[in-house]
Specification:
Layout lengths: L9 E4 L4 E9 L2 E5 L6 E6 L3 E3 L5
Antiparallel strand pairs: 1-2, 1-5, 2-3, 3-4
């Protein structure tokens, strides 16, 4: 399943459990950055990215 992620979306990488903001995507990968800013991380498989759950 292919999902297009919008830049700025807050997501969770289910492979690592880390939360990040989508900075862009290329092919089967998305580029994430820590929610508070900083350097972009390594490319993450789009298939392992899920939206964060809203606070109740």
């Amino acid at each position: 399943m292919s999902t297009e992620w919008s830049a700025g979306a807050l997501v969770v990488d289910t492979d690592t459990g880390k939360t990040g903001r989508v900075m862009g995507s290329v092919g089967p990968y998305v580029q994430l950055r820590q929610p508070g800013g900083g350097r972009e991380g390594t490319p993450t498989r789009a298939a392992s990215v899920r939206p964060t759950k809203p606070k109740s």
